[in-house]
TrEMBL record:
Protein name: Folylpolyglutamate synthase
Organism name: Coemansia brasiliensis
Gene3D superfamilies: Mur ligase, C-terminal domain (3.90.190.20), Mur-like, catalytic domain (3.40.1190.10)
Any one GO cellular component localisation term in the record: mitochondrion
Signal sequence range: none
Top EC class for this record: ligase
């Protein structure tokens, strides 16, 4: 079925899901039919396979899984049976092809070169089956050591396995220099002259006071309906006046410089062309977390390549901005009201913008003028902080599963604690010393094999408390096993500056949290 598909393929250690969500939402806003495949699934197996943001119906998912399983059994291949993930990948590609999607945004499951999703041909269609137009390599770090590589360079090499000759390659800013150099070296060998190195592109994470959408008088935006839960707290907003944006320029400068292994002299592979006009655009950043600026850069240049080189002409600047405003990626730095704890996490807003998604707009519309604005970005647009209730009512949820992700989560938590302290002091509800005495209550569960010590050392600071909990077995993921809460407690046994407690069920911890009355602890 993949012979019908045009694909954006996304690999990396962290950020893959956010990039897929941003790219998909912008393409949907441009009125393309978009298939999106993420892994692992969020709540139910069918939610990993979506068209226009809506999961494949559960009964259709079950029917296709059974059909594919029966086909697999009848083949009696010498290589054995398909894994559960291979069957789900085949299902996704089949469903996308049957529904004639214009483009599919595919997230790599594990690694890249040997991943089940790595089955697409070149962008020109001359080699292989299906057309992989753009390959995005998100930040690479040491995760799944021993499975896809024994060091960072081997892991980077594995993830670069999705690159295709003649396709466009977007390399995210890499914190690990070994990963960056390995990825760049391989990219130049595979598709020279078609590489965008995000590290080289000027971009600024900033507050824009009078944000306005680019001209879009000729664009009919699709209406998007989102559920409405309790609005997130004002202190979860990005601090300062205005709306948080990434100011970025295009067209990008191409990464065309390469030092061959056997030469001491640099080779310039580009051909001199007239300098194009540089355009500056403000991209709304509604997904929380400092790292989302980097994900937005990768997503934007992916979309720019699609419209510039592959004929996706409906991707206008305003379309990208609206798509970035409407994006949803639940479970990643998402605020939940404890009062809504019995409702599904999948319908939880992940940013204040979820309360008023953009359905339509006129040319030059200015956001931020009131609480009903889809881009309300200042804390003044939210209800005032109640210093006695705000910490009790909320829990911050995230799926940080490795040390770099844990570091980003802690950075966001520290920023939020500073905002609360500042607002309490400004509102004269606490003196300076009392206002700063805030700690975190971490409700944590781990899957077997994770580096608990490294992750917890990143997260837990003196004065914090840790509640260790188990989790239920994820559907269709038999390889995922839950770490015992007792082992989590044992991992923290040497920490005398924190409080640790274990629970038999997650629901017990949540109910205890709901019964607590504390204005000194933030729930995460």
């Amino acid at each position: 079925p993949r012979s019908k598909l045009q694909v954006v393929h996304v690999a990396g250690t962290n950020g893959k899901g956010s990039v897929c969500a941003l790219v998909s939402e912008a393409l949907i806003t441009a009125r393309y039919t978009v298939g999106t495949f993420n892994s692992p699934h969020f709540l139910q197996p069918n939610d990993a396979v979506r068209i226009q943001g809506s999961p494949i119906p559960e009964n259709e998912y079950v029917r296709l899984r059974q059909w594919i399983n029966d086909l697999d059994a009848s083949k009696q291949s010498q290589y054995g049976r398909l894994t559960s993930f291979e069957q789900t990948t085949a299902l996704a590609l089949w469903w996308f092809a049957q529904n004639d999607v214009d483009i599919a945004v595919i997230e790599v499951g594990l690694g890249g070169a040997r991943d089940a999703t790595n089955v697409f041909g070149t962008a020109d269609g001359r080699k292989g089956v299906g057309r992989s137009l753009v390959q995005c390599i998100c930040p690479v770090d040491e995760d799944h050591l021993g499975m896809i590589g024994n060091n960072i360079e081997e892991i980077a090499m594995e993830k670069s396995g999705i690159m295709r000759p003649g396709s466009w390659i977007i390399i995210a800013n890499q914190e690990r220099s070994e990963a960056f150099h390995k990825l760049r070296q391989i990219a130049h060998r595979i598709s020279p002259g078609r590489i965008i190195n995000v590290r080289r592109q000027p971009a600024y994470d900033m507050q824009v006071q009078n944000f306005s959408f680019a001209e879009h008088s000729d664009i009919d935006f699709p209406h998007r309906q989102f559920p409405s839960l309790t609005p997130p707290p004002g202190w979860s907003m990005f601090n300062g006046a205005g709306f948080r944006c990434l100011r970025i320029k295009y067209p990008p400068s191409l990464d065309t410089y390469i030092m061959p292994a056997r030469s001491r002299h640099p080779v310039e592979t580009n051909v001199a062309e007239p300098t194009p006009k540089v355009v500056e655009i403000d991209l709304p950043l509604v997904l929380p977390g400092y790292y989302q600026a980097g994900n937005a850069s990768v997503a934007f240049y992916t979309l720019d390549v699609l419209r510039t080189h592959f004929g996706f002409s409906r991707i206008k600047d305003a379309v990208i901005q609206v798509g970035f405003v409407n994006v949803r990626w639940p479970g990643r730095i998402s605020w939940l009201s404890i009062a809504d704890r019995r409702r599904t996490l999948g319908s939880t807003p992940s940013s204040p913008s979820d309360m008023a998604p953009l359905a339509s707009g006129s040319s030059g519309h200015e956001a931020g003028s009131g609480s009903d604005s889809p881009c309300s970005g200042s804390s003044g647009d939210n209800p005032p902080l109640d210093p006695k209730k705000s910490l009790d009512r909320w829990v911050l949820t995230d799926g940080a599963h490795n040390e770099p992700a844990a570091a980003e989560l802690r950075k966001y938590v520290d920023t939020t604690l500073r905002r609360i302290s500042q607002q309490r002091y400004i509102r004269a509800t606490r003196n300076r010393q009392a206002a700063s005495q805030l700690h975190v209550r971490w409700v944590v569960g781990f899957s077997l094999g994770k580096d608990m010590a490294a992750i917890l050392n990143r997260l837990v600071q003196p004065g914090d408390s840790v509640w260790a909990v188990p989790f239920s077995q994820p559907k269709e993921m038999p390889w995922i096993k839950c770490e015992s809460p007792a082992n989590i407690v044992a991992c923290l046994s040497q920490r005398e500056d924190i409080q640790v407690e274990q629970f038999d069920h997650l629901s017990e911890a949540i109910d205890r949290m709901a019964a607590y009355s504390s204005d000194t602890h933030m729930n995460v």
